[in-house]
Amino acid sequence: MKTAIASTGNTLESKVDRRFGRCSYFVIYDDESGSMDFTPNPYKDDEEGAGPAAVQLVVSKQANQIVSGEFGIKIKPLLDSQRIRMIVIQEEDKKISEVIELLNHKKSK
Amino acid sequence: MSPRRKILRKVSAPPPIKGFKPFGGDKSGSDHSESIVLSFEEYEAMRLCDYEMLNHHSASVAMGVSRPTFTRIYASVRKKVARAFVEAKKISIEGGKIYYDSDWYNCSGCRCIFNNPDKDKAVEHCPLCGNNAVNQLYDDDQSTRKRQRKCRDTRFGSYSKCESKDQFQKPHI
């Protein structure tokens, strides 16, 4: 299963972004192969419609779920119709490496 | 002047099939015959009303529209289905101004909140940390609540009298 994580930077030490549409990077993590892909977000500085455009990007990467701090109001109906799961991280300052560790934890069980 | 924008209708799940085809009879199965198009919201209206046996008021709340709007959607779907039956037309279900609804859960392990887009599968463990301690969050749909608050009505408020007081629900405008 592929997971998209909204990230503030392109390293494992970067933190999960509080905003989904305007995050700096998307991390596409595949928990079966363990592959990781940092994709810069081209819609970062868009004034409007960054969320729906970002959803299109995530859909094109075939992710099944998205981890972010928050999701905008335009996003939920789009993701529901695409059957993509939203995971909202409550803790602030969670690192990408920590999220990936959590995702791997599930696999080892 | 362009018409007023339609409010998004809440649909719990998409229909399992894309449509129906008549069989038997002369015209049956001919792919050239035009089909009658039901929208997703019309399908949902018929499902809520005739399958779940809800009344128009509760069904309108479930779809997040007003009771009169729901009745119009329902009248339209009955008309279309009857026409398809009588005229032996195909029915296809597509389009509509809708959004899908999904349930929300929280995990006590990693304190994250997540939703379940696939209604057929029950949620057993957290998709993030794999913890089994997940609880479903019960919350009214926010937009519905906001709309209801906005039109806190004066017409049905204090002076509404109904004989069966227990069953009476304030009309949803």
SSE topology sketch:
The complex is a heterodimer of chains A (109) and B (173).
Chain A: E1 2-7, E2 25-30, E3 36-40, H1 50-60, E4 65-68, H2 75-82, E5 85-88, H3 96-108
Parallel strand pairs in A: 1-4, 4-5
Antiparallel strand pairs in A: 1-2, 2-3
Helix pairs in contact in A: 1-2
Chain B: E1 9-11, E2 19-20, E3 35-38, H1 40-51, H2 56-63, H3 67-87, E4 90-93, E5 98-100, E6 103-107, E7 113-116, E8 134-137, H4 142-150
Parallel strand pairs in B: 1-5, 3-4
Antiparallel strand pairs in B: 2-4, 6-7, 6-8
Structural features:
heterodimer; A: 109 residues; alpha/beta; 5-stranded mixed beta sheet; 5 strands; globular; B: 173 residues; 3-stranded antiparallel beta sheet
Describe this entry's structure for a reader.
The complex is a heterodimer of chains A (109) and B (173). Chain A starts with a strand and ends with a helix. In chain A, 29% of the residues lie in helices and 23% in strands. Chain A has helices spanning 50-60, 75-82, 96-108; strands at 2-7, 25-30, 36-40, 65-68, 85-88. Chain A has 3 helices and 5 strands, in the order βββαβαβα. Chain A is α/β, with parallel strands linked by helices and 109 residues long. Chain A is globular. The mean pLDDT of chain A is 85. In chain A, strands 3-2-1-4-5 form a 5-stranded mixed β-sheet, sandwiched between helices. In chain A, α1 packs parallel to α2 (75-82). Chain B is globular. Chain B is an alpha/beta fold. The chains are: A alpha/beta (109), B alpha/beta (173). The interface between A and B is medium-sized, with 24 and 20 residues. β5 (85-88) of chain A pairs antiparallel with β7 (113-116) of chain B, so a sheet runs across the interface.
